[in-house]
Amino acid sequence: MALVKLEEFYPDYREHDSDNIDDIKNFDVYDQTNDKIGSIHNILVDEQTGKFRYFVVDTGFWIFGKKVLLPVGLADIRYTDRRIYAKNLTKEQVENLPDFDELEKVDYDYEEQVRGVYRTSTATSGMTKPATSRMTKPATYDRNTYNYEQDPSLYDINRQDSQTLKLYEERLVASKQRRKTGEVAIGKRVETETTRVAVPVEKERVVIERTNPTNATPTNPDNAFREGEVARMDIYEETPDIRKEAVLKEEVKVKKVVEQDTVQAQETVRREELDIDTEGRPIVDK
User: Fold this and answer.
1) Which among 108, 23, 96 has a CA at the least distance from the CA of 59?
2) Strand-pair partners of 40
3) Residues with Cβ < 8 Å from 63, sequence gap 6 or more?
4) What is the average pLDDT across 7-20?
């Protein structure tokens, strides 16, 4: 009865995994005293039937990185805690177990060595019968006729102890997407208009005033009757000087502001609840 690794027997188990097998390969392993033993390294299955037979446990630093086989019947799987509890497993037993190095080395003799360690622990834990009960004869095993059904305590998974029912519910997940809703372009253009400006200017003109003297006394001035005498006076006037110059009329600033708003959404979601049929038996819902 050859054993193969999980991915060799079920190459697409990740796509059709209904029992969260891939999650189990990431679970940690603890003993009954809640001490961490190691973690799941791989899972070995029966090449003929595909049934799970062993968990490959990497003991990490507990036993110096030793890898050992844990029969699935001795594993209590706790999905919620992401843990596997090894029933009745002690550090001494791990030290006595053969080291798992290569799958090719796992033959009948190798498995018998593994089973021998665990049979001792299961036999010891099962010695709770009254003293008056009849002692049963130890089972005998033959390499030619042996099958895993002869060790139900090692290979049968008691689903009543570790059965898991998962309840799911839908939740509304709100997310935001940023999308462009418009664009604002602000530019300049030149417009022309005709304007008028009034500039007051001054002009000089000559005013000649003639008066008659009131004193008519005869005189003989020295400058009388001098020909060519001229009186000169400069005359000025203002002319408008009109020019154009650019001045800052207005300054425009362009910026964005963020306005916040709350959008209400409503959708129907589903949730799974337990329907418990106790059949008259009291139960405790923890």
Assistant:
1) 96
2) 57
3) 91, 94, 95
4) 63
Of 177, 184, 119, 120, the closest CA to residue 152 belongs to 119
Tens digits of residue pLDDT in 162-171: 445 567 788 8
Residue 224 lies in a domain: no
In DSSP notation, 138-163 reads PP---TTT--GGG-HHHH---HHHH-
Domain that holds residue 82: 3-127+138-158
133: DSSP letter: S
Query: How do 28-30 and 83-86 pair as beta strands?
Result: parallel
**Domain-embedded: residue 280:** no
Would residue 31 count as lying in a domain? yes
In terms of Cβ atoms closer than 10 Å to its own Cβ (0-12, 13-18, 19+), residue 220 is exposed
Coil, strand or helix: which one is 91? helix
| d(C-alpha 275, C-alpha 268), whole Å | 21
Give the per-residue pLDDT at 237: 92
- Asked if 269 and 169 touch (Cβ cutoff 8 Å), the reply is yes
* Domain count within the chain: 1
Q: CA 94 to CA 34: how far, in whole Å?
A: 16
Q: Give the CATH number for residue 59.
A: 3.90.50.10
Supply 120's token pair.
Answer: 């001792």
Cβ of 4: how many Cβ atoms within 10 Å?
A: 16
Q: What is the pLDDT of residues 141-163, one digit of tens each?
A: 788 888 888 888 898 875 444 44
Average pLDDT across the chain, whole number? 80
Q: Tell me whether residue 97 is in a domain.
A: yes
Q: Residue 75: which of 103, 95, 56, 102 has the closest Cα?
A: 56
Q: What are 261-268's contacts with CB under 8 Å, separation 24+?
A: 265/172, 265/174, 267/172
Greatest pairwise CA separation for the chain in angstroms: 187
